[in-house]
Design brief:
The chain is 15% helix and 39% strand. It is mainly β. The strands form two sheets. A seven-stranded antiparallel beta sheet has the order 4-3-5-6-7-8-9, with helices on one face. A hairpin with a 2-residue loop joins strand 5 and strand 6. Helix 1 runs antiparallel to helix 2.
Length: 155
């Protein structure tokens, strides 16, 4: 995955702490350890104040993440799927512009077939459209028409 945003630490967002493995109670000398759950479908990474990772985020988690990254143009978020949806492997956002309440959103779309490359496309959008796009992605819906998006690179 290629994240083009700079990572700058700040304050006021609690980091996500990975849950510890739970131990089953047993009277035997060897205790079985149950693995901590891995993310099922999506992983939301928010770099605001301190790194935060949310496995299988809810719509509320998305809204909170967008609010957090709107606190500074240095903050960013990445929502990635375990598997590509319509070729889209992740959506990321940063660069909140307080003067016109817009933010830069970028997605990566991977081609199909052997030797297929991933291409990134970006666009400045309203905060509301960002939230809607991220929520749609959680539901398996990706932006269809990216012809007016800027091509930002091939990876």
């Amino acid at each position: 995955m290629c994240w083009f945003f700079s990572k700058k630490k700040a304050r006021n967002v609690e980091p996500y702490i990975e849950p510890r493995a739970e131990q089953k109670e047993s009277y035997s000398s060897s205790q079985e350890v149950k693995e901590a759950p891995k993310f099922e479908r999506f992983l939301l990474t928010v770099e605001a104040a301190s790194g935060q990772v949310v496995a299988d985020p809810s719509a509320e988690d998305i809204q909170n993440a967008v609010r957090a990254i709107c606190a500074s143009e240095e903050y960013f978020l990445v929502l990635e799927g375990k598997q590509a949806i319509n070729g889209v492997t992740y959506i990321q956002a940063n660069g909140y512009d307080v003067s016109n309440q817009t933010i830069y959103m970028e997605l990566q779309r991977k081609g199909v077939g052997a030797g297929a490359v991933a291409r990134n496309y970006g666009k400045v959008v309203s905060v509301g459209l960002l939230v809607k796009t991220l929520a749609d992605y959680l539901s398996g819906i990706t932006p269809d028409h990216i012809t007016d998006w800027d091509f930002t690179g091939e990876f």
